[in-house]
Design a protein that fits this description.
about 525 residues, 26 strands, 12 helices
């Protein structure tokens, strides 16, 4: 008897993590049903930025150009004192991942609305039930059954799927139901977020500025669509009850030199910083993603983005497993790859928080600003450096001198027929081996080639722009980026995963990772 499913994957929660999970699953050919308690997008802006890695994920999902119309490029980040002393600055050099700026400012409700609109265009593969409060989930050898209640009618619904993703936020119901524990701490300090509509431009508004102060540090950031935000900690003895309306909030802004001539207060809210992570991100057929799996302070601008990256990583793997293209064991690589990255951004956020709160000694500050010497990989501050895998489905050594685990740059390239496009658009969404002016298949043993053939890998020679192409399976390095990148690490060939991370290189072994 054939099992009947409402969808391949049930997604609990339809915020940024949930919608990226749905888009990824649909993009890779499987169906999803999302269950979302709230009927409308959360009206308050929470996340404030996306970077070139996240935009590359949007590109894979076919939504980057429409999202780019809703967001603004970010100029730079700076940490300054009230006296005007600049403690630290992070400039944004040109991206290597296929975007012009590295960071963009967003207005989250607007960006979320655009992502949901894109998802609606996959109506044959994405179904969304709003007003559905999930109350339970059961799983067996063949799938999961999610129980939910309609918040308007009280009607109970069961949804049957092969797998489930808990993307239902920091207070995740799914996390508790499946028995995952959230470990870590919550800071006692309460912060007020003040979202404003801009009425006029002021000097350096396009910096993301952190006002560093032991008593009253402030986050000062331009959001897209004519919005601006300040985040300010309450002092001991203060509470949200002291700020019931905008009238009580205005003195906080005026102390920073912001007046009614500059902005109109749109809304304000209160929150605390969390540094917490679930003890495991998977229980059988149920996975956690986004805030359900990890919560971090906001200083690195990475909380929402980390959830989106979780969803993309898990989504393309689930899709290929469900379609029978990859073994079920691939799903074990999800947490192995994503947990270290979430931990990295959490640590980075904590350290940047110490800067804004002036908790670093002079020695620690100097160490943070120090530039390592004699590195193979050109140094960039951790906040803006391209991503690197620390584990998971990769083969070979990791570290400064290794190409394994790195994300391939994305320049403009040409194909043998003369078409010019960004690299990802030429390579497609599968496994690809790239060779430095050579067919990479010629570097493989028969056993190694059989392994990549089983994954339907493409074999592509990267030619210099000064040469003729010799066959259809070639691209031309028009921007002169790919060949120098390969040669920097001494690699003649690399194997790329669908998410464009290097899984293996001939320097160590081009065999399919175990």
């Amino acid at each position: 008897m054939t099992e009947s499913y409402d969808a391949d994957v049930a997604i609990v929660g339809y915020g940024p993590t949930g919608v990226i999970a749905a888009l990824t699953l649909a993009r890779y050919g499987v169906s999803a049903v999302a269950l979302e308690r709230d009927k409308d997008i959360y009206p308050r802006a929470r996340a404030v930025t996306v970077n070139d890695w996240t935009m590359r994920i949007f590109q894979d999902l076919g939504v980057d150009e429409r999202i780019e119309k809703k967001i603004d490029p970010q100029r730079a980040l700076r940490w300054v004192t009230y006296g005007g002393t600049e403690i630290m600055r992070v400039e944004h050099p040109p991206s290597t991942l296929g975007r012009r700026p590295r960071f963009y400012n967003i207005y989250q409700p607007t960006m979320e609305a655009e992502l949901r609109a894109a998802a609606r265009e996959h109506g044959d593969r994405i179904a969304v039930h709003y007003g559905a409060e999930v109350t339970g989930i059961d799983q067996d050898a063949d799938g999961v059954t999610v129980t939910s209640t309609d918040t308007a009618t009280g009607e109970t619904r069961t949804t049957r799927a092969r797998y489930a993703i808990g993307a239902d936020g920091g207070s995740s119901t799914i996390r508790g139901v499946v028995g995952c524990r959230l470990l870590g701490d919550t800071n006692d300090v309460m912060w007020v977020i003040i979202d404003c509509r801009v009425k006029r431009w002021w000097p350096d508004r396009d910096f993301l500025t952190f006002w560093s102060d032991k008593e009253r540090p402030v986050v000062d950031i331009a959001l897209s669509a004519g919005n601006h935000r300040w985040e300010i900690p309450l002092k001991p003895g203060e509470s949200p009850e002291n700020y019931p309306t905008s009238a009580e909030v205005w003195p906080l802004l005026k102390a920073l030199g912001v007046t009614e001539e500059d902005v109109e207060i749109h809304q304000h809210a209160f929150y605390k910083h969390h540094t917490r992570m679930a003890d495991t991100w998977r229980k059988g057929r149920v996975f956690l993603a986004g805030d359900a799996a990890h919560l971090m302070p906001p200083w690195a601008g990475a909380g929402m983005q980390t959830g989106m990256r979780d969803a993309h990583n898990l989504g393309w793997k689930l899709a290929r497993v469900i379609k029978g293209e990859l073994p079920e064991s691939w799903l074990d690589t999800y947490e192995a790859e994503r947990r270290p990255n979430a931990a990295f951004y959490t640590r980075l956020a904590v350290e940047l928080g110490r800067v804004i709160k002036q908790e670093l000694s002079e020695e620690e500050q100097a160490a943070m600003n120090a530039v390592p010497q004699d590195t193979v990989t050109p140094f960039e501050p951790p906040l803006i450096a391209p991503p690197v895998l620390e584990g998971g489905w990769i083969r070979g050594p990791l570290g400064d001198a290794s190409i394994v685990g790195r994300m391939v740059p994305q320049p403009t390239a040409g194909d043998a027929a003369g078409r010019m496009a960004r690299l990802d658009d030429l390579l497609g969404d599968g496994f690809v081996l790239l060779g430095d002016d050579i067919d990479p298949a010629t570097l493989l043993t028969a056993e190694e080639k059989a392994g990549w053939d089983a994954l339907d890998a493409l074999y592509v020679a990267v030619r210099p722009k000064t040469a003729y192409t010799q066959g259809p399976d070639e691209i031309v390095d028009l921007d002169e980026v790919l060949l120098p990148w390969l040669r920097r690490y001494g690699a003649r060939a690399v194997a790329l995963r669908p998410d464009k991370f290097v899984a293996a290189a001939d320097v160590s072994s081009l065999a399919v990772p175990a």
